[in-house]
Amino acid sequence: MFKLKVFWLMAGVRETKREALRTSLIEAAKGRIEMSGLGGLRARDVAADAGCALGSLYTVFKDIDELILHVNSQTLARLRAALDLPANAATSPKESLVELACEYLKFAANHKKLWAALFDHRMPEGVAVPDWHVSELVVLFQYIAIPLAQLQPELGKEALANRSRTLFAAVHGIVSMSMEDRLVAVPLEELEDQLRLFVETFVKGMT
Amino acid sequence: MFKLKVFWLMAGVRETKREALRTSLIEAAKGRIEMSGLGGLRARDVAADAGCALGSLYTVFKDIDELILHVNSQTLARLRAALDLPANAATSPKESLVELACEYLKFAANHKKLWAALFDHRMPEGVAVPDWHVSELVVLFQYIAIPLAQLQPELGKEALANRSRTLFAAVHGIVSMSMEDRLVAVPLEELEDQLRLFVETFVKGMT
DNA sequence: AGAAAAAAATGAACAATGTTCAAATTGAAA
DNA sequence: TTTCAATTTGAACATTGTTCATTTTTTTCT
User: Fold this and answer.
1) Are A123 and A202 in the same domain?
2) CB of B68 within 7 Å of some strand D atom
3) Is the domain of A89 the same as that of A170?
4) A170, B198: Cβ pair inside 8 Å?
5) Which has the minimum average pLDDT: A108-112, B6-10, B147-151?
6) Is B143 inside a domain boundary?
7) What domain range is A165 assigned to?
8) Predicted confidence (pLDDT) at residue A5 exceeds the cutoff of 60
9) What does DSSP assign to residue B61?
């Protein structure tokens, strides 16, 4: 028993260190992206920040893209968490959609560079985004599908999915352009008003 | 021999060759982007395709970004030309907005990589997109502003500009996501129906 | 036209960066 | 402790954007 436990503990050291390194690398990459954006991410900087050699990065991740995907995965998790509040505390389907959109805008504004990395990142030509990450993205459509289904109960499953995706894309486009200071020089409160108006108009047109 | 030299002197060989090189480089870059996307663009390939030395590229353009901006500038010009048809042949403001959106979708679908380059390209951290290029983009909002002003004549100049920008951003978001085969596996006709429905719904909600 | 000056084109060299790999280090087993 | 296997390391490599001394071409001057 004692021996077994000792064995297990000792055998665990490698796994433990590996996990710690993995976490450090993701955290370091996240920090660099927050500071300098996706374009300012350097393998050497990440390794230095994480306190490991350059080569060690490649023993944990296949390449830089895989590391970025993991940072994006965490960002998506925080985004989903932020959307859970308005999704649950809804007074009406319309209000729910409006609040979801506003929360999305606020998240983007409060995490500009991490949020941008979510959509700016591109895999190398011909390489597909892995399924596990695509499905993390697709879940976002669900937040919209629930209130939308209440507003249009006659919609079939397919049609509902299509419209959810379309409305998400529209809101995303608006938020996305809001983040480009060059094209939109307007305070956040006003952006939120515009977005609110947009969703309300769209919902009104639906009924 | 004397006459030949005089001819060359008068022809302004220097300027002519410089313009020809400029054109070749932009054309070569355009071709490379069409073939391999923005991520597949290489200074060496462009120079080789244009039939000049690597260094010559940098006698015409400050850096690769400037070259890309010029390719994007031409793409924008073609996009605007494509939008002129539906903008002029409109039967009603609503129809005008619908057709503009559909034409935008078709342009994106027919020039996927060039269109993607338009929005995927990022200047280096801290460097702003030059004014001349920003204003080329901003003109797109005007296409929407005209029918929108007819639908809501009570809107002030500022409010009209805001709403035009918002509607453009929404349509752009939808088209943008449509181009990501991974998230949207749907034929173009159906995408067009979705987009048409979206704009119609929004216009209906506006009135 | 020919020489001299100015401008432009060239491509080798440089710097930055992602990735690999042989050697060194460290953990696991006996 | 000793041995073996897994892991870590960072120097070296490959690719790419950019620069610059040198060469070539164009213009100017006589």
Assistant:
1) yes
2) no
3) yes
4) yes
5) B6-10
6) yes
7) 63-206
8) no
9) S
